[in-house]
Amino acid sequence: MEKMVVACPKCQKQLRVPSEGDLGITCPHCRFEWEIIRSQGANVQAHINNIEEIPGLKDIPLDQLQKVFEKIKNTKVNVMVVGGTGVGKSSTINGLFENAGVESSAKVGESGRPETMEVKSYSLNNVVIWDTPGLGDSTEQDARHIQKITKLLNDKDEDGHPLIDVALLVVDGSSRDFGSVYKLIKDVIAPNLNQNGDASRLLIAINKIDKIKHHSYWDTVNNCPTEKLQLHINDLVTTVQDRIEADTGFRPEIITYCAGESDNGEMLQAPYNLGKLLSFLLDRVPSKKRIAFSNDINKDKKNFKSNDEKENYSAKVEKTIYESFKEVVVDVLGSAAKIAGEVLKEVVTSPQVRKVLKDLGVAALKSFFTKGK
């Protein structure tokens, strides 16, 4: 059987494992145990052509530049997704990421009851998605699941940093009962994030905003909330923020969106505000890891077509990624590179580097947000 190389999510040591099938793995270096579900194979290989012609890099040995791209390829971004049963975690993951394969029977927008009962990891090129068990089935099961989530939030990588880079809490906006959400944040997420001194790793996302009121409140032509519905959405966000702040002292930023819904291949509800969710999720990833994160962004334009347009999320994402690339260049090459200011700007915008970024799957992100079909 053919082998592929994966990095341990905890210590980042590279391991050779079978390239097919679901795997249960124990890292021989740190003894960390995890699963790989539908792993995506080896990372994209970067090819650098005519590198000596790039302004500011002509005196830097090719092997040094290759280190930059190797650093990007080998960087892992760990995203934990938390939420109750049926809130749309799987459809959200599949909408954001390329070939995530989370609950393969529930691709973006497909109906289907999530059945995640254990913490599972889905290794893509650079992103490792930790899909946690849904809460709300029973008190006994919730206690076990909370214990697993708590452990994951407190796991450290080989450098002593929190293993989880960002925690995405998905909430069902159409639900009338947010009690389990408040309990999860107050008793589990907030204490553990605060213990590690970084509550900013949490992003709360309210899904299914098209179902908050009667369907007539949704603008089906423009695929967005009507003004009346937006008022209800704003009230909901304020209510949730007020309660969380009262419980924890932390007032979170909340994104409202629709992951989308389909039935037997027929689109019933197109995604809305996934582009915004992607942008805010990327903001919470450590800055030097953002360019690696972008390697697994879903390439389907339709997923990011409709957004609230309060901000140019396309430009924001693109700028964030290139800023991340600049950080990696300086971090890897250090003083040997002697690159700064406008010279570095020329480097990251040069055709050769853009070609490499394209090979890595992180260029031309603007096209994901275009209004065309």
UniProtKB/TrEMBL annotation:
Molecular function GO labels: GTP binding
One of the GO biological process terms: tRNA methylation
Domain G: 78-189
Superkingdom of source: Bacteria
GO cellular component, one term: cytosol
Protein name: G domain-containing protein
